[in-house]
Design brief:
The chain is an alpha/beta fold. It contains 6 helices and 7 strands, in the order αββαββαβαββαα. α4 packs parallel to α6. The protein is globular.
Amino acid sequence: MTTAREIMNPGADCVRTDQTAADAATLMTRLGVGALPICGKDDKLKGVVTDRDLVVKVLGPGRAPATFPAGSLNQQEAVTIGADDSAEEVLETMARHKVRRLPVIDGDRLVGMVAVADVARSLPHPEVGRLVEVISTD
């Protein structure tokens, strides 16, 4: 059984709740990623911010990225996957919540991120095709 730990990108960098949307965008650019975990001062996961969130919640409404708090970009509750959960469970969680990326948690520690592309490399194509169809529809 392939696990989330085996297919994830390890060592996810966080944007902190007390940083800004501009800080999140800068970190995304530096890392070449489209999503970042948001972590509090206690190093606990508070949510995930995507490049789309930055556009829709900050730039589109005309807010200033340099002053808009990254902590205000949190979703209601972060959807996560356990490090030892199966790749199939990753697929099911992504489909159920219609997300393309999941923070990977080991106990209460953030240990990585897993994306649709990571799942695609580890599961048969028909299953991945169904996931893409589910998360792409409203």
